[in-house]
Write a structure and sequence with these properties.
Layout: H1 4-13, H2 15-25, E1 32-36, E2 42-48, E3 51-54, H3 61-71, E4 80-84, H4 90-98, E5 103-108, H5 111-120, E6 131-136, H6 140-151, E7 157-161, H7 165-168, H8 170-214, E8 232-235, H9 245-254, E9 258-262, H10 265-271, E10 278-281, H11 293-297, E11 305-308, E12 323-328, H12 334-337, E13 348-349, H13 355-365, E14 371-374, E15 409-411, E16 417-419, H14 422-437, E17 443-445, E18 457-458, H15 461-467, H16 487-523, H17 527-546, H18 548-554, H19 559-574, H20 578-627
Parallel strand pairs: 4-5, 4-7, 5-6, 8-9, 8-14, 9-10, 10-11, 11-12, 12-13, 14-17, 17-18
Antiparallel strand pairs: 1-2, 2-3, 15-16
Helix pairs in contact: 1-2, 2-5, 3-4, 6-8, 8-20, 13-14, 16-17, 16-20, 17-20, 19-20
Length: about 625
């Protein structure tokens, strides 16, 4: 039975883990057992492949643990340590005593080992101040979540396995190391994306908002019966699209499925005289306008454009056809300003590394059935990035020999290995995650020689037409509906925003004054006065964080700076020297407040432009209602 002290500790600090272990207490098992050593302490053994493997020395496990920890040098350079395998915890207790200021976590793949640990070892005798997490099991998705939680507390992690586990749990150890590497790469990629687009997302959201108020919301204003239960095709720009033009032409001419082009696929389809039922776009870059340059030049007015509300604002200017929108998670402005007339909550589509993933979310929310993928290679085919008819000045279609990496290969739909890259792998992982969560939706991949996508069934498009797409389903003019947002609510929200802006101006000025005083008290070693000022500063900074204008307009443009400030704030909290703490606050928070002021000055003209445009739009709507 788990010791009483341990039960109390687990129930307070690791409740989910405790719930996992409780059922195992009463289950008799000979897989994990504890026995006395020659020196009178305990050791643990585990049955593995019909053999008995000891997790510690049968003679002197304490001395063995000391040697194990001694083997790992320069531990101070790591932000935290992850122990893989707990056994009876001799090595972890030794570490906690030897490195009392280093954070550590424990991953034990075998929950029965944990039950035996908590039955025989009293945590009351351990230094647990820096224990961050204990987790168990072999489910890779759960392990990935735990790894992400660890990385949120520090990227530089040392992994220390129990020596026996390097043989017993090789797969789990390999996965841990791979997950750490991939999560760190993912974090770097996210940081790079934030750095590139953090201002751009906010500018786009501001400049696009009048379009949001003038165009229908695809998820709210279009009758749900239009798409529910109807087949929908996501046409991507992969090289395999070139093989499907005639099949898509047949589907379009006979209205057998709704065709949604994503990204550059619109140009390949136009070249073939195939106009999709809608084109979807969300890329925040100014270069995104080039994707729709041909539509604008040819003045094609029959292709509805479904845009994410944070799309590059240049894309929407002079678009000749009808437009609809969807709110995206990178847009921090529209969700605060819009409400439907019947006060219904407005749905948001989560940001993703690919418009195909965004469109999949959209079609799932529209309850399309099945969702069919065309040209979704997520890999290179015949050294090509795109299908025929897609060429841009800023990127070449052909892949050079140097760009092909033997380490970047994935299985294709036929079981062969094909070349890919980090961007395609990220898109594939995200798409697979959304497909897995869309349990009620059938997803069919028709991409010849494309990457195998988990959760999909591979069927050639020609075969699919024969078997499933055999009756007309497409309704003409499905997009001819009106926006149902409440303009009065929007006006009221903007009035509140003006008040928040004035408060934000005052808060910035007040915080700058406080930081000057903190710096002065720190220089003069007035610790008591400085501590009082620090307390006041914390409260005032919290007011800043709660300010609506800051939340909607300023902090989204400072994502990278906020991550840095959060890391520095953790260091500041651990600093015991009052004067040094004051200097750190003055420096780090001073830099951040300056950034807030600079970004306020930057965004103010855009905000003023928004107010003027919305005032004009509001008057126009009110006048049109009076004329009816």
């Amino acid at each position: 039975m788990i010791l009483v002290d341990n039960r109390t500790y687990l129930n307070l600090h690791h409740r989910e883990l405790f719930r996992k272990l409780l059922p195992l207490e009463s289950q008799a098992s000979d897989q994990v057992t504890v026995e006395p050593t020659k020196k009178g302490s305990l050791t643990m053994k585990i049955k593995w492949n019909d053999k008995i493997r000891y997790l510690h020395s049968k003679y002197d496990p304490e001395n063995e643990a000391a040697r194990l920890i001694k083997k790992w040098t320069n531990i101070e350079q790591y932000e935290q340590v992850l122990f893989v395998g707990i056994g009876l915890g001799y090595h972890i207790k030794q570490f906690a005593n030897q490195y009392p200021s280093t954070k550590f976590s424990i991953y034990e793949p075998n929950p029965e080992v944990l039950v035996q640990f908590f039955t025989h070892v009293n945590l009351k005798d351990w230094a647990l101040t820096n224990l961050r997490s204990i987790f168990t099991g072999t489910d890779q998705q759960e392990i990935t979540v735990e790894i992400q939680n660890l990385l949120n507390q520090g990227k530089n992690i040392l992994v220390i396995p129990l020596p026996t586990y390097e043989t017993i749990y090789t797969n789990e150890l390999t996965f841990i190391m791979k997950a750490l590497k991939e999560q760190i790469q993912h974090e770097k990629s996210n940081l790079a994306t934030d750095a590139a687009f953090q201002k751009r997302w906010t500018i786009n959201a501001i400049k696009n908002f009048p379009y949001v108020m003038k165009t229908p919301n695809i998820l709210h204003d279009v009758n749900s019966s239009v798409f529910k239960g109807k087949p929908a095709i996501i046409v991507s720009a992969g090289p395999s699209l070139s093989e499907e033009f005639e099949n898509l032409r047949y589907i379009k001419e006979h209205g057998l499925a709704y065709i949604f082009s994503v990204g550059s696929a619109i140009n390949a389809l136009i070249n073939q005289g195939i106009y999709p039922d809608a084109a979807c776009t969300y890329d925040p870059s100014h270069l995104n306008q080039k994707v729709f340059q041909k539509v604008k030049e040819l003045n094609i007015s029959s292709i509805p454009l479904i845009f994410g509300s944070s799309v590059g604002f240049e894309t929407l200017k002079d678009y000749p056809g009808p437009m609809l929108h969807m709110l995206t998670s990178q847009d921090t402005i529209s969700p605060e300003l819009v409400r439907t007339i019947d006060n219904e909550g407005v749905k948001t589509v989560l940001d993703a590394p690919s418009i195909a993933v965004i469109t999949f979310q959209l079609l799932h929310l529209l309850e399309c059935q099945p969702i069919i993928l065309v040209g979704q290679n997520l890999s290179f085919k015949d050294r090509s990035r795109y299908a025929e008819g897609i060429e841009y000045d800023h990127v070449t279609n052909r892949i050079s020999e140097n760009e092909l990496n033997e380490d970047m290969m994935v299985e294709d739909v036929y079981g062969n290995m094909v070349y890919t890259d980090e961007a395609f792998k990220s898109m594939k992982n995200q798409l697979e995650m959304y497909i897995k969560n869309a349990k009620d939706t059938e997803v069919i991949n028709t991409t010849n020689c494309g990457a195998k996508i988990q959760g999909t069934t591979f069927i050639r498009l020609s075969e699919l037409i024969t078997k499933k797409l055999n009756k007309p389903v497409v309704l003409d003019s499905w997009y001819q509906v009106h926006n149902q947002y409440d303009i009065k609510y929007c006006d009221a929200q903007l009035q509140k925003m003006n008040i928040s802006l004035k408060e934000f101006d005052k808060l910035i000025s007040s915080l700058e004054d406080m930081l000057t005083k903190i710096q002065q008290f720190s220089n003069r070693y007035h610790a008591e006065q400085m501590e009082k000022q620090l307390s006041k500063f914390d409260k005032r900074f919290e007011q800043l964080r709660r300010n609506k204008f800051y939340q909607m307009f300023i902090s989204p443009m400072l994502r990278v700076q906020l991550k840095k400030l959060t890391q520095k704030a953790n260091e500041i909290r651990q600093e015991n020297n009052s004067n040094l703490k004051g200097q750190m606050v003055a420096k780090e928070f001073g830099d951040f407040i300056k950034e807030c002021q600079l970004h306020l000055d930057f965004i103010r003209p855009y905000y003023q432009e928004l107010l003027e445009e919305m005032d004009e739009l509001s008057n126009s709507i009110k006048q049109s209602k009076n004329l009816r």
